[in-house]
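step: validate -> pass
step: tokenize input -> pass
step: predict -> running
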Amino acid sequence: MLTKNTEKYLDFETCREALANVREQGHKIVLCHGVFDLLHPGHLAHLQESKALGDVLVVSITAAPYVNRGPGRPIFSDDLRLYSIASLACVDYVLLSPVATALEVLDRVQPDFYCKGHEYADHSQDVTQNIDREAERVRGYGGDIRYTGEIVFSSTRLINNYLDVLPPQVKNYTSQFSQQYPFEQVREGVDAMQKLKVLVIGDVIIDEFTHCTVQGLTSKGTVISTRFLKKEQHLGGSLAIARHIATFVDSVTVVGVAGKEPDIHSLILNNINGGIRLDLQYENDAPTVVKHRFIARQGMREQYNKLFSINYLEEQGPAPIHRQKLLERLEKTIRDYDLVVVADYGHGLLDSTLIELVQSKAPFLAVNCQTNSANHGYNLITKYKRADTFCLDEQEIRLAFSSRYGDHTHLLKRLHQHLGAQQGWLTLGSSGSLGMNVKGEEELTPALTLDVKDTIGAGDAFFALASLSAKLELPVAIGSLLGNLAGAIAANTLGNAEPVDKARLLKFATTVLKF
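step: predict -> pass
step: emit ->
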């Protein structure tokens, strides 16, 4: 049982008032902020040097839900990390920060000095791009930022090398990858995505989730009885893919057809950021596809069981008049984009005429053709004759070639040749992904996490990042890494509640590649 020195613990909401008394006594306040997942000599030197700058040292620790270092991190609980820091004599106060950045902590503490390790002195190396905002914020309160430390250790490097946090296959893979492709090369590739002009074409889908608890079976039959908890809606389909891409590039346009339902129109507008241009046709006789899932959480675990699903859709897709308007617009603009991403969910938008248009005129074409319960066996990627890059799962490629038990590597090669692709990927769920380049060389990448909340949307996230990587002609190994990073992040989010953020992905990359 931990014996806490409660006098050192500050509450996040009330710490401003508590520290005002300290400031009134003429004491200079120093703030250090971080995750402090594994306390090491570098932390001790940093905290002691920071304390020497003032009179009172406050250490804020990022709460676990806001630690953007990938699934499974931090490895130590909030309580243990607070306890470890509070046990140090040089630390006067600790507080748990329930936010993703230090900005709100700075607002509350308003330190005289905000201290970071000297590895942050070059602000361009901060993948989160927060250090500039933090420095500006602390100076706005009359304080300043300082960089400490001659002794440098990396908690992440120590954890990766000496603790069994990463599965053995992931540890072996990332260790070898980092020797061939340094993180700086990965980051340069991701940064280069910003200038791309991307068009996303595909079915607009709204994902609805009804949270409930299972009470049992009804007394007069074998029907599951549940108790309603809450309901939420997310942007799915082409809009989900566009939201992922928009965190990496400046210009994304979404083309498609949706209904004129007022609530759905508002949902779309309220969840699309400024980097996405909506070029949607809102039609009265083309209702928006809605997929409504009833889910139950597995006890205390962050995983969900899907109990039942209802799909609201028109199997034939938009009427001919709406299709014609869409074709006419695309004829005029499709060549203006660097990358055309086709998200074909098989709900009728992409007919043979539209497919022929994108195949003949897209400067660089990325295709994802999905199999789901509404189109099983009918929406096969082989209906496309050209794609510069593609992504699909094992069931989809087996259906495409009517091969239940064939070697999936051979099937991937066949599809690669059929489409004339430069790069392509087969996602393999918990086994990771198999990538292939224009020479037919293979790249097997393990799944970067086995912690899963919900797999809906993970494939879309993989596809978004892999497509951007392929357009830039990055090595297929880097595209595989980026896709798997995005998929792992998405698998730890319910549905498409949040897009994969660039800073979060790069932070995750630094976590797995430090050895």
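step: describe -> The CA atoms of residues 413 and 425 lie 10 Å apart.
step: cleanup -> pass
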